Protein 1
Amino acid sequence: MTSLKKMLRVDDPCDVFGVHGVCGIVGCILTGVFASSSLDGVGYVEGMTMGHQVWVQLFSVAVTIVWSAVVAFIGFKLANMIVGLRVPEEQECEGLDVNSHGENAYNQ
């Protein structure tokens, strides 16, 4: 997995998107399916079908992704202009616990 992260140039040590993003998307879409009263859900409003509800859920996922991308881009640009996004590579290799916090995370 680490080599894939390096190949994709992904810096996500907690797999935040892999856990929260993907699972949130799948859960949102499946909400449109499992709301069906035939699957013991709450059912749909009159005139609503499972297909239409899934379409609404997909649309909401798309809007959320676009909104999050725009807001994150603006936030990262502002943070980069104000303080920068990365520490020097030397400090990163030594460990941020020592350089940024003045303590060791592990007893070595």
Note: The first helix runs from residue 2 to 8.
Protein 2
Amino acid sequence: MKKIVIAIIGFVAVLFGADIALAAEGAEGVKESAYGSIALAAIFLSAGLAMGIGAVGPGIGQGTATKGALEGMARNPGMAGKLTTTLLLGLAIMESLAIYALVVALMLLFLYAPQFM
């Protein structure tokens, strides 16, 4: 476990430090370049996390809702029509949460990232 943590810290240090080490500009240019690359990396990381975390919740909720609806239909087949309608409405609302996460991720990528490129 300790080796994995050290490897991750080393990877992050190389990822963020390479731009600073390879910069051929003066001292001010290095600072601006380093800030830009770190900000850009943070934006990309934030966009990925927003989409990843934003999709986990609705995915779990949709699975749980579908499981409950199918169990209800198995117990009482006469209620299948009402359960299906309610299920589809609930799934649409859950899916909209994932779409909101996608919108946030796209806003990060297309509105904020070009400022640092």
Note: Helices lie at 2-21, 27-75, 80-112.
